[in-house]
Design brief:
Number of domains: 1
Strand order of the largest sheet: 2-1-3-4-5
Number of helices: 5
Radius of gyration: 13 Å
Strand content: 5-15%
Number of strands: 5
Low-confidence stretches: none
Mean pLDDT: 95
Structural class: alpha+beta
Largest sheet: 5 strands, mixed
Distance between the termini: 25 Å
Length: 126
């Protein structure tokens, strides 16, 4: 389980994230970001890339998506969010405009996660 500092959690809330829920209890029809180590947290419409970028930032010891983008030579928020999705085992999201849940690589999710998440689109090759 990932434990956020109060400051990190406040940043996620400001990015539109809500309190995490277990995958089997979450309403997956709403926009969300899923991480196996956190659970599902719903995001305000259009804010999922900001939340994913922050998760990448925290992993790399940075304080913002912009900072981690500069550190890794990535554009914020699109490339930073994509990097988090591609490199994080057990990660997926649903945007406010997408019909399907999207995940990084097919191999990054377990069979049980795939069943719970439903129809899936994979954005990267294994």
């Amino acid at each position: 389980m990932i434990n956020f500092t109060p400051q990190q959690w406040q940043m996620l809330v400001e990015a539109g994230a809500q309190e995490p829920q277990p995958l089997h209890l979450a309403d997956l029809s709403l926009p969300f970001v899923y991480n196996r180590m956190i659970g599902v947290f719903h995001c305000a419409a259009g804010r999922h890339r900001l939340a994913m970028s922050l998760l990448l930032a925290f992993r790399h010891g940075c304080h913002s998506g912009i900072e981690v983008g500069d550190k890794l030579g990535l554009e914020f928020p699109d490339d930073t969010a994509d990097r988090w999705l591609e490199e994080t085992p057990g990660a997926a999201f649903r945007s406010s405009v997408g019909r399907n849940v999207q995940a990084g690589k097919r191999a990054s999710l377990t069979v049980i996660e795939k069943r719970w998440l439903g129809d899936m689109e994979y954005l990267f090759e294994d």
